[in-house]
Amino acid sequence: MKTRSLFTAVLLSLSSFAVAQSGATDVEKKSEFQPHWYMQIQAGASHTVGEASFGDLISPAAGIYGGYQFTPLWGLRAGITGWQSKGAWANPLTIYKYNYLQGNIDATLDLGNLFGGYKCSRIVNPYIFAGIGLNGAFNNDEAVALSNQGYKLAYLWDKSKFNVAGRAGLGLNFRLSEKVLFNIEANANVLSDKYNSKKAGNADWQFNLLGGFTFKFGKSCKKAEPVVYEQPAPVQPAPVQPAPAPVEEKKEEPAPTPVAVKEEVKPMTQNIFFAISSSDIRESENSKIASLVEYMKENPSSKVTVYGYADKQTGNARFNKSLSKKRAESVADRLKSEGISAERITVDYKGDTEQPFSTMEQNRVSICIAQ
Question: Is residue 138 domain-shared with residue 9, that is, in the same domain?
Fold first, then answer.
């Protein structure tokens, strides 16, 4: 219990640091994410829970991973961890060692980009992961020798033993350069009760605290090219010319009253921005909706087209098509609720096929053009 409490405290500390970092950074406006491969090399210490003091059951550990970052948020990695584990016979206290190698597949979620928006040059990027592993333990000679001395280990195994492991953890990447990061990771692995040869009536837990380096391959970000959204030119009504007054000989008539030229109404554009993966209109955008409603009520012949978009760095094309439609419809529904008739509203959506702005945060948008 003490070990799990200590590990939980480490995870909570790293989580607090992660949130602080993600909230403190400004969103970078001039770079966009590029999918890329990476490799991680780690070394540190492991602790397998047993009937001995914490320090008696610490062993060396190491790991190596290869991974692919698909989006600013999601990645997948596969690798091998292992080295040594320890078990303990309580009375008299006897520590025995054995070795293991564990193949792992993990899904990773970048917390810095989740809470702080994507930034290529962020100094600290926290992440969490969860996955599954296959643990192969071997070299259990010390436990076998202990059993031969009369200490009966209920789940004693010889030669080798394979167990499926569930795993999760939290890590931090500290940026040293564009392609090299220093890495710290804490993780927990849960295995069969038979892992350490002793019967405890519950799963065996192994905890790891590792440090190392992350190496990125290829370009992980690039400078975004600004995209200018071209709005259609408004149709300008032709000015009304006054009709010439008839002139009669030797009869003076009052000068004709000039016909007033109708003042041209300029079109209005409002950009309604959304949170990541959301189609809910945020409170900060309500003033833009109010301005658009006021414009259309003051100009009863005007109509509005609502274009929905999604940023291409998040999600996939199918998801983004649906999301952009929901964003456009969300704005249209709000306009209807404010008294604008449906006949005056047109909805269009582009998914991620068009990116009207230079950053992914700005491309989570519905662009409204009223004229």
Answer: yes
User: CA 273, CA 57: separation in Å to the nearest integer?
Assistant: 53
Task: Decide if pLDDT at 143 tops 60.
Answer: yes
Contact 351, 321 (CB under 8 A): yes
**203 shares its domain with 279:** no
**Residues 46 and 85: beta-carbon distance below 8 Å:** yes
Amino acid at 108: T
Q: What is the pLDDT of residues 85-104, one digit of tens each?
A: 999 998 889 999 999 999 99
146 and 290 share a domain?
Answer: no
User: Token digits for 46?
Assistant: 């492991």
192, 223, 254 - which closes a domain: 223
Residue 230 has pLDDT above 50, yes or no: no
Q: Does 10 share its domain with 148? A: yes
* Residue 244: cis peptide before it, omega within 30 degrees of 0: no
Domain range enclosing 129: 2-223
Model-wide pTM > 0.70:
no
Number of CB atoms found within 10 A of residue 53's CB = 11
